[in-house]
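Structure first, sequence second, as always.
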């Protein structure tokens, strides 16, 4: 028998690795009475170990998440039965929702669009000075914010419909501000060239269909911008060559299907939780309020994610495909955000671009500091969030405004996290989304419910709508 003494290889880190040995002529491995079976190494879960593949834990987490949500869904169905009823929502909407003021307000929006267009035309002919253009634009855009708000406050309109109307007007406000800014820059450059001066703007002629000022001042060009999935006006947008029919069909089906999912989740999951949250909020029972908030956090974040996908992926891509709009960068990887600042810069690219182009950079160019400019951007964003919630609900509590301003210290906190531990910054960002939103929702719901519902309810229905003592759930009928 061939015998070979087994060698032990010294590793660079001081550990020893046993030699694999040799085979004999008959194909069998050599055996040795002192064959080593140990080597010097750290445990896999130690920080000094270089293992980075934890895919099994991700699989485990996903299974646990699915099972937990299935348990919650089953518990919800056992306690409340089936509450989903799209037909009832549609009938109630047709019978009780006053849509005439909203339709009227949306039709009047064309007046503001034409005012902006005529103003630019008159300024091109030197009929209006830059100062007059500024005054007309200021009055026109300010009226865009105040006009629908006054109509909604003076009318009994469903909050959801009113919020949609205000959102359309807020988008129109931002678009017309951008339209006025860009045309002002182009107009100044145009008149400077006419006088033989030197301009700071470089020509941009990337294609044969390139438009230059003032050829862009057409009503078709303005309405294309109003419909385009962007808030920043340009004379020439990147365009696609054709419509992808399969892609368009997928986005269209998502636009039809996802709102139904959201309505179903609100009926089956959110509504019972909100009704059960009234009594703890009235009694200021903090432990039960915390329990309600944690229960609301899961369905709220699910609905928020569905709404994000619906708006920024399905609807905006559907609109962009129809209009041959080439820039589809409506969002970035905000889910990996390690700071609050990156989250707000990446989850809503159209708004972020508008804020940088028409608010942040103009403030810097006028000598304001970066800190002040950032603060003003957050204040403007907080104002619009409050505008879209308080006015439709006819309550003014500034909870959303305060929540937006709270992002400033959160940004300081997440930025202070060392780069080697940035995963904790991402943890804080997600925690603020998951817990911050349901807290604000509960505060607004309590104020709206107390102001608008309890005064209209009969004693029997009011008793049903609150939690029974020592019973955390309301007995709803399907």
């Amino acid at each position: 028998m061939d015998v070979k003494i087994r060698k032990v290889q010294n590793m660079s880190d001081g550990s020893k690795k046993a030699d694999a040995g040799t085979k004999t002529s008959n194909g069998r491995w050599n055996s040795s009475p002192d064959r080593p079976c140990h080597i010097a190494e750290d445990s896999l879960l130690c920080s000094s170990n270089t293992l980075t593949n934890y895919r099994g834990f991700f699989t485990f987490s996903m299974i646990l998440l699915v099972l937990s949500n299935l348990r919650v869904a089953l518990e919800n169905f056992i306690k409340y039965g089936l509450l989903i009823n799209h037909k009832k929502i549609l009938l109630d909407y047709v019978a009780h929702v006053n849509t005439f003021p909203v339709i009227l307000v949306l039709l009047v929006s064309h007046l503001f669009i034409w005012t902006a267009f005529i103003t630019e035309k008159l300024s091109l002919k030197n009929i209006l000075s830059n100062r007059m253009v500024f005054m007309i634009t200021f009055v026109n855009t300010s009226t865009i914010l105040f006009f629908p708000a006054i109509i909604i406050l003076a009318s009994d309109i469903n909050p959801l419909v009113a919020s949609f109307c205000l959102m359309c007007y807020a988008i129109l406000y931002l678009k017309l501000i951008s339209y006025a800014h860009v045309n002002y820059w182009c107009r100044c450059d145009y008149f400077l060239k006419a006088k033989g001066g030197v301009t700071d703007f470089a020509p941009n002629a990337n294609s044969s269909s390139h438009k230059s000022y003032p050829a862009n001042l057409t009503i078709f060009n303005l309405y294309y911008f109003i419909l385009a999935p962007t808030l920043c006006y340009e004379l020439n947008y990147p365009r696609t060559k054709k419509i992808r029919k399969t892609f368009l069909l997928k986005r269209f089906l998502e636009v039809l299907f996802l709102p139904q999912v959201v309505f179903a989740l609100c009926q089956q999951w959110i509504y019972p939780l909100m009704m059960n949250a009234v009594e703890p909020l009235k009694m200021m029972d903090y432990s039960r309020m915390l329990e309600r908030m944690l229960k609301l956090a899961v369905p709220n974040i699910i609905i928020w994610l569905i709404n994000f996908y619906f708006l920024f992926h399905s609807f905006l891509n559907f609109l962009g495909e129809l209009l041959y709009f080439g820039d589809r960068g409506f969002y970035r990887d905000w889910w990996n955000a390690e700071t609050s600042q990156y989250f707000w810069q990446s989850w809503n690219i159209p708004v972020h671009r508008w804020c940088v182009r028409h608010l942040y950079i103009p403030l810097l160019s006028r000598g304001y500091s970066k800190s002040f400019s950032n603060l003003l951007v957050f204040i403007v964003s907080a104002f619009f969030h409050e505008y879209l919630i308080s006015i439709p609900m006819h309550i003014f509590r500034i909870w959303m405004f305060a929540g937006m301003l709270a992002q400033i210290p959160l940004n300081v906190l997440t930025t202070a996290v060392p780069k080697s531990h940035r995963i904790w910054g991402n943890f804080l960002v997600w925690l603020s989304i998951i817990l911050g939103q349901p807290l604000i929702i509960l505060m607004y719901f309590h104020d709206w419910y107390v102001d608008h519902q309890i005064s209209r309810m009969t004693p029997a229905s009011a008793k049903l709508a609150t939690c029974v003592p020592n019973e955390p759930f309301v007995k709803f009928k399907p």
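Margin note: The first helix runs from residue 55 to 80.
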